[in-house]
Specification:
This protein is an alpha+beta fold. It folds into 3 domains: 1-109, Tumour Suppressor Smad4; 112-328, Beta-Lactamase; 330-552, PPM-type phosphatase domain (Phosphatase 2c, domain 1, 4-Layer Sandwich). The protein has 12 helices and 30 strands. Helix 2 (130-145) runs antiparallel to helix 3 (152-167), helix 2 (130-145) runs parallel beside helix 7 (284-329) and helix 3 (152-167) runs antiparallel to helix 7. It is elongated.
Length: 561
C-alpha cells in the first residue's frame, strides 16, 4: 500500500537538454523511478539505457532519501555515486550517462523559483517595465499554487483569473476533456473574477480546434486581420470578438520508445481559453508567460487526474480483496466429515477473483452432493455468477429435485441473456449405498480411478446452463465400487500452457493418476497440482485452476447409520 507523502511541496524537475523542463510531484513514498511502467514506476523514463528498477525516493522522519534500486551504472547525486543518500533542495540526480536526463530535487514547498521558470522560456527580454514585473509576479504566484493545499477548483480558478489578467481579456474559460474526447466547460470567469454561467460563454470552436490540431497556442491580437477561417467563424462574428487566446493543456510528457531521450506530448487534458471584444497587444514576454501558465495548469490537471486514478485503483483493490475474501469463505469447510467419502478440493484463481468454484454439501443423512462449475469469462462478473449459482444449488439440501433445479437455473439465465454468461457444471450425489447420480452440463468428464485404472465417466457432449433455452437436463445413475475415486477438474488444469504454448491435456492428467489408488485424496491433489506447475513453468497462469477429488468408502455392514 502506498503511503501519502508527508510534504506537499516535494517534486522532481526533469531536465533534458534542448527541451522544456517538466515536473513530477512526489505524492507517495516510496516514489519509484525507472524505465517503463511494468514495475510500477511513478516517474517513467523511457531511455533504454536506464534500468526498469532504477531508484526510489523514500521518506523518513527527517526528510527524503534517494535509494539505488539496481541501476546498472549507479545513481549519482551532485556527481557522487551513492547507494543511499539524503536529499537536499536543489540536489541534481543523474544516471551515469552523459546525454541522459537529470532530475533536480525540490522540497522547499514554494514551487520552482522565478529564475527556474524564466529558463523555461527562451530568450526572455530584459524586464524593466512595471507591467512586465506584474505579469511575472502573477506567473510566480500561479507556480506556487501548484504545491498549495487549496482545493483543485480554487487553484484552477485562480490560474484562470491570472490568465485573464495577463491577456487583459473580458472573460476566460477552462475546458476539460471528459474522458471521451469531448471538451466540457469546467470553469468560467469574467475580467472582474466573477463566476459566469457556463452556458452563456460559448468559446470559439474554430480557435479551439486550431490549437488542438497544431498542438500549440493560438494567440491572436486582432481577429480583424486573422486568417479567414478564424475571422469568419460563427461565434467570432456573433460575439464581435477581436482577440482570442487558446492554450491546449497536455499531460506530463512521456518518453518515446523509438527515441528514448526525446519527450513527446502526452494526452490532451483540456484548453485554457480567453477572449475580448477589444484588440490586444501581446509582447513576446506575454506569449512566453502564457505558455508557462498553460504548462502549470496542465500540471495541476495532470496531477489531479493521476491522484484520482490512484484513489480509484486503491478502491478497486479494496473491493477485489473483499470479493476474494467472500469467495474464499464460501468454499466448503470440513470436507472430511463424511463417513462414506474422502474429499479434497482446491481453487487457484488466475486473477483476484475467479469464475470457477466447487462445493460439497449434504443432501440428506445418506447422500452427499459434489459440484464443480466454470463460469464463462473472468473477473468480478464471473465471480458474481458463481455466488448466485452456489446459492441456487444449495437449495437441494432442502429437498429440491436436482434435475428440476438445473432446468430452472438454465431457464433463468437464458431469460436474462443480457448477462452474457453461462456455466459448465458437473453435479454428483454420492449415496452411502454406493450409488452415484450425476448431471452433466457441458463440463469435461470427471476421471474415474478404479483399481488403479483411469477412465472417463462419460463421453459425448452436453449443454452448459444458461446457453440454450431449449436444453433439458437429465440425471444418470451408476454403481460405485469401494475405493472408487472421482477426479473433477476445470479446463484450467488440462488447458494449462507451457512456454512452448503446448497444453497439459487430459492424457497427462491420466498418467499422473494411473496406479495411484492407494494414495490419499490430499496427496493426489498435490501430485496433480505439482505436475501442472512443473509442466507450465515459465508460462503465466491464464485460467483458474480448480480440483475436487472424492473417494467412495463402502458403508460398514455393522454400522447402524
Amino acid at each position: 500500500m502506498l503511503e501519502h507523502s508527508p510534504e506537499s511541496g516535494t517534486f522532481l524537475e526533469v531536465v533534458i537538454h534542448g527541451r522544456p523542463s517538466c515536473f513530477a510531484v512526489v505524492t507517495h513514498t516510496p516514489f519509484l523511478i525507472g524505465r517503463g511502467s511494468e514495475t510500477g514506476n511513478h516517474l517513467q523514463l523511457e531511455d533504454r539505457r536506464i534500468s526498469r528498477r532504477c531508484a526510489a525516493i523514500v521518506a523518513d522522519g527527517s526528510g527524503y532519501l534517494l535509494e539505488d534500486r539496481g541501476h546498472r551504472l549507479g545513481i549519482f547525486v551532485n556527481g557522487n555515486n551513492v547507494e543511499r543518500a539524503r536529499l537536499q533542495d536543489g540536489d541534481v540526480i543523474d544516471f551515469g550517462l552523459e546525454d541522459a536526463c537529470e532530475l533536480i530535487f525540490h522540497s522547499s514547498g514554494d514551487g520552482p523559483s522565478i529564475e527556474n521558470m524564466l529558463t523555461r522560456m527562451a530568450s526572455v527580454p530584459t524586464v524593466s517595465q512595471p507591467g512586465n514585473m506584474g505579469k511575472l509576479k502573477l506567473l510566480l504566484e500561479a507556480t506556487t499554487l501548484l504545491h498549495s493545499q487549496l482545493s483543485l477548483d480554487s487553484v484552477l480558478g485562480t490560474m484562470l483569473e491570472h490568465a485573464i489578467a495577463i491577456t487583459n481579456a473580458d472573460r476566460g474559460l477552462l475546458l476539460e476533456d471528459d474522458g471521451t474526447g469531448v471538451l466540457k466547460q469546467r470553469l468560467a470567469r469574467t475580467s472582474k473574477s466573477a463566476p459566469m454561467q457556463r452556458e452563456h460563454v460559448p468559446p470559439s470552436q474554430t480557435a479551439v480546434r486550431q490549437a488542438i490540431e497544431r498542438q500549440s497556442s493560438v494567440i491572436t491580437a486582432d481577429l480583424g486581420i486573422a486568417d479567414s477561417a478564424l475571422k469568419s467563424a460563427q461565434s467570432v462574428v456573433a460575439q464581435r470578438l477581436r482577440s482570442v487566446v487558446v492554450i491546449p493543456l497536455f499531460a506530463m510528457p512521456r518518453a518515446n520508445s523509438d527515441q528514448p531521450v526525446v519527450l513527446a506530448r502526452g494526452q490532451l487534458l483540456g484548453v485554457l481559453y480567453c477572449d475580448s471584444k477589444r484588440p490586444a497587444a501581446f509582447s513576446n514576454l506575454d506569449r512566453q508567460i502564457l505558455d508557462a501558465l498553460g504548462m502549470e495548469s496542465a500540471s495541476i490537471l495532470d496531477n489531479a487526474r493521476l491522484m484520482e486514478r490512484e484513489r480509484e485503483r486503491q478502491r478497486l483493490e479494496q473491493e477485489l480483496s473483499i470479493a476474494r475474501y467472500i469467495q474464499k469463505a464460501l468454499l466448503p469447510q470440513g470436507m472430511n466429515k463424511y463417513p462414506h467419502l474422502s474429499v479434497s478440493g482446491m481453487h487457484l484463481p488466475c486473477h483476484e477473483v475467479g469464475g470457477d468454484y466447487f462445493d460439497v454439501f449434504p443432501i440428506s443423512e445418506q447422500k452427499t452432493a459434489v459440484l464443480i462449475a466454470d463460469v464463462s469469462g473472468k473477473g468480478l462478473g464471473a465471480a458474481l455468477l458463481t455466488t448466485i449459482l452456489q446459492g441456487a444449488l444449495s437449495g437441494m439440501s432442502m429437498g429440491a429435485e436436482p434435475v428440476r433445479v438445473f432446468n430452472h437455473i438454465n431457464k433463468f439465465l437464458c431469460e436474462h441473456s443480457e448477462l452474457g454468461r453461462y456455466a459448465t457444471m458437473f453435479f454428483g450425489i454420492f449415496g452411502q449405498d454406493g450409488t452415484l447420480e450425476y448431471i452433466r452440463a457441458g463440463h469435461p468428464s470427471p476421471l474415474l480411478l478404479r483399481r488403479g485404472e483411469v477412465s472417463e465417466l462419460y463421453t459425448g457432449g452436453s449443454f452448459p446452463v444458461g446457453l440454450i433455452d431449449e436444453a433439458q437436463f437429465t440425471s444418470t445413475t451408476m454403481e460405485l465400487e469401494p475405493e472408487d475415486t472421482l477426479v473433477l477438474f476445470s479446463d484450467g488444469i488440462t488447458e494449462a500452457e507451457n512456454a512452448r504454448r503446448e497444453l497439459f491435456q487430459t492424457f497427462r492428467l491420466r498418467e499422473v493418476l494411473s496406479g495411484r489408488m492407494d494414495e490419499p485424496v490430499e496427496s493426489l491433489q498435490q501430485l496433480i497440482l505439482g505436475s501442472v506447475h512443473s509442466f507450465s513453468a515459465g508460462a503465466p497462469q491464464t485460467d483458474d485452476l480448480t480440483l475436487l477429488i472424492a473417494r467412495y468408502h463402502a458403508r460398514d455392514p455393522d454400522s447402524t447409520a
